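Researcher: Next sequence.
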Amino acid sequence: MAQALLSIQILPKVKPGEDVVPYVDKAIAIIKASGVAYRVGPLETTMEGDLDKLIGVVKDMNAAMFEAGSPSVLSQIKLLVDAGDGASMGKLLQKYPDGQ
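Model: Next structure:
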């Protein structure tokens, strides 16, 4: 499949007063364990790799939220697929090497 970038903001439903951060930490740990290139941002995390692999990571993240006790999960996704040159964070950010 084509090289892709997938940005995700995962929002598990939690009990009133429960902190969502441990859930988000678990989701990021799943991304890290998958071996795909990724970059954590303040509102979402961007992954880079084969589209099928990235979709599989999203499925694993959602499953982990349910296993952790969340009754529902909203995953907001942005997806760039480039079958030609291949999508990459490096290409899109080369103009901004310092993140500025």
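Model: The first strand starts at residue 3 and ends at 12. The chain has one domain: 3-93.
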